[in-house]
Amino acid sequence: MGRWQPGTRERLQATALQLFASQGYDQTTVAEIAAAAEVTERTFFRHFTDKREVLFAGQDDFVGVFTGPIEAAPAEAPPFGLVRVALESAGGFFPEERRAWSRARQGIIDANPALGERELGKLASLKVRLGEVFRDRGVAEPVATITAETAVTVFHLSFAQWITAGEDRPFSTIARERLDALTELVHPGR
User: Fold this and answer.
1) Domain of residue 141, residue span
2) Nearest to 26 by CA among 106, 109, 89, 92
3) How many CB atoms lie within 10 A of CB 95?
4) N or C of the chain: less Cβ packing under 10 Å?
5) How many CA atoms lie within 13 A of 18 on its CB side?
6) What is the per-residue pLDDT across 17-75, written as a single tens digit (0 to 9) for each?
């Protein structure tokens, strides 16, 4: 027990999620997670700073999924087109094999107000970072902030649909549908 093995991080995440779902987030300890995953607490802490991080790890990768394609896009690309590019890229962050885990994770977050606040903070950080990226590209205010807010709102609505029970469409299809609905709202008949 306690020896590092490939996949330890993922095993810890899966084990923690299972324990959070069965006995509650607040009732689950790091010691229980480590024991159930057959590693030491020290190994747990090599991968995560605390049990919350099991649910929120990968924030930099998550933000990069949005910002990377925007930063790499041609200078003349319009802001709303960049939202579409970023959301298409985000689809790769949410493959089908991640859907069940994402549904379970969201259920745990929804059941715990402190975790819900953390999730909202994650989305707020994404908005701030996207606003910076748009401004760095020369997008003026208030368009840069509105574009960042729009991107995160469409993402959030798409993700909520993607994890809905019975939903089986890919994330990118759902995001495209929401972007098309927004386009129809703003520019009817387009």
Assistant:
1) 58-186
2) 109
3) 10
4) C
5) 11
6) 999 999 999 999 999 999 999 999 999 999 999 999 999 988 888 999 999 999 999 99
pTM over 0.90: no
Tokens 């790499």 locate to 72
Report how far apart, in Å, the C-alpha atoms of 190 and of each of 21, 88, 181, 184, 185 are: 45, 20, 10, 6, 10
* Tokens, residue 183: 């386009």
Whether 3 is covered by a domain: the verdict is no
The fraction of the chain above a pLDDT of 90, given in percent, is 84
| Residue 152 counted as domain residue | yes
Q: What is the mean pLDDT of residues 95-119?
A: 94
Assess whether 62 and 31 both reside in one domain: no
Same domain, 175 and 81: yes
Same domain, 50 and 65: no
In the DSSP assignment, the letter for residue 40 is -
Backbone φ and ψ of 23, nearest 5°: -120, 0
Residues 33 and 76 in one domain: no
Residue 133, domain CATH: 1.10.357.10
